[in-house]
């Protein structure tokens, strides 16, 4: 290890890796050393295209084998954006080789696989983190501080999240997210993972006690062995009378909203996963008032927009750069942060419970 830079190996040329290429460049504590694909030519094409927009001073090696990249001496950390169904093998291989692991989400097919990955990294003394970028957002930290202090909306009683986009017929037939082998959780994994994660943050990381969930609409790609959730909803119950709900869908127009409702008002975020293109990340605090005077009934709007200075993406203080920088610091300082694998396991536990409830016709089950 250089002692100054975390040297990254990218295990796949998935589209999201392009965003993280730039994040590594902007992190100030990392560089991409190598990129692997199933062919050297494909890896080199990815490198050339990324270099054209975000050049690195050092050369980046194109590798035609995932195993070869993992064994490279000039790689400290492996970024794994492979499909969910393929990840476990390579997370375990990276941990065995003593490489730190940043893996895309959803992390695993099931809780047992996720726990095996996390345990392997812990035993090898390497950092494990999943790629939820908003975990590292300044806005999220600010909102959660407000919830903990009960200073804005009072005691939190209800969490509602919604993440959706409308995939066209080509998406529904050909995208890997409708393939039951590559992405068995469908929209629940791709979108619901974020809803569950946001719910955990708002709930102060306490786990729900019960969940009831159901696939509303199933999808099956033309080459898929089975169906996956294309539209999904869930209801979660927590201790102390807190409840939550989420909805995710490949069939509903773009929406990434959170409503946090308390005894004294509510707080809303319209872009909790991918912030709107801006130099600030905003939320709105609401405390509407119903005024009744004999025959006059007036519902008065009281809303106050707040924001923190934080770019949507592609800047040194954006959430994906904060993620990569935080990960790099764990590697360089040899100081592992157990919060991140713990959060992954909690998210996977809830996702698995949702699948079990769905398989049982949506009955409420205990977690």
Structural description of this entry:
With 367 residues, the protein is of the alpha/beta class. It has two domains: 6-132, Rossmann fold (3-Layer(aba) Sandwich), CATH 3.40.50.720; 135-318 and 347-366, 2-Layer Sandwich (Dihydrodipicolinate Reductase, domain 2), CATH 3.30.360.10. The protein is built from ten helices and 17 strands. It has helices at 16-27, 40-53, 66-70, 84-96, 111-124, 138-149, 169-174, 186-202, 319-332, 339-359, and strands at 6-11, 30-36, 61-63, 77-80, 100-103, 128-130, 156-166, 210-219, 228-237, 243-249, 251-262, 265-269, 280-286, 289-293, 296-300, 303-309, 365-366. A nine-stranded mixed beta sheet has the order 16-13-12-11-7-10-9-8-17. A six-stranded parallel beta sheet has the order 3-2-1-4-5-6, sandwiched between helices. Strands 14-15 form a two-stranded antiparallel sheet. Strand 8 and strand 9 form a beta hairpin. The longest helix has 21 residues, at 339-359. It is globular, with a radius of gyration of 21 Å.
Keywords for this structure?
nine-stranded mixed β-sheet, Rossmann fold, globular, 10 helices, six-stranded parallel β-sheet, 35% helix, 367 residues, Dihydrodipicolinate Reductase, domain 2, 2 domains, alpha/beta
């Amino acid at each position: 290890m250089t002692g100054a830079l975390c040297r990254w190996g990218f295990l796949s040329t998935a589209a999201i890796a392009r965003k993280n290429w730039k994040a590594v460049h902007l992190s100030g504590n990392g560089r991409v050393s190598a990129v692997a694909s199933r062919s050297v030519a494909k890896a080199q094409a990815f490198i050339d295209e990324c270099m054209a927009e975000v050049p690195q001073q050092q050369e980046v090696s194109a590798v035609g084998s995932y195993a070869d990249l993992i064994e490279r001496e000039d790689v400290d950390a492996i970024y794994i954006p492979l499909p969910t169904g393929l990840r476990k093998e390579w997370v375990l291989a990276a941990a065995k080789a003593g490489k730190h692991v940043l893996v895309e989400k959803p992390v695993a097919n099931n809780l047992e696989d996720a726990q095996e990955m996390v345990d392997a990294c812990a035993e090898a003394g390497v950092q494990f983190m999943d790629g939820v970028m908003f975990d590292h957002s300044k806005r999220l930290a600010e909102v959660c501080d407000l919830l903990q202090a009960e200073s804005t909306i009072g005691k939190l009683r209800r969490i509602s999240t919604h993440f959706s986009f409308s995939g066209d017929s080509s998406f529904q037939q050909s995208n890997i997210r409708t393939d039951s082998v590559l992405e068995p959780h469908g929209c629940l994994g791709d979108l619901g993972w974020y809803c569950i994660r946001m719910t955990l943050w708002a709930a102060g990381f306490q786990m729900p006690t019960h969940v009831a969930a159901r696939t509303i609409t199933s999808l099956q790609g033309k080459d898929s062995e089975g169906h996956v959730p294309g539209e999904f909803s869930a209801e979660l119950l927590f201790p102390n009378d807190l409840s939550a709900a989420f909805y995710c869908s490949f069939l509903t127009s773009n929406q990434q909203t959170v409503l946090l409702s308390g005894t004294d008002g509510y707080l809303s975020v319209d872009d909790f996963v991918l912030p709107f293109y801006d130099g600030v990340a905003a939320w709105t605090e609401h405390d509407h008032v119903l005024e009744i005077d004999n025959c006059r009934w007036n519902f008065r709007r009281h809303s106050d927009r707040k924001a923190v200075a934080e770019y949507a993406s592609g800047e040194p203080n954006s959430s994906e750069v904060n993620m990569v920088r935080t990960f790099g610091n764990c590697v360089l300082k040899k100081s592992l942060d157990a919060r991140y694998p713990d959060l992954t396991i909690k998210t996977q536990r809830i996702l698995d419970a949702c699948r079990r409830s769905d398989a049982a016709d949506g009955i409420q089950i205990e977690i």
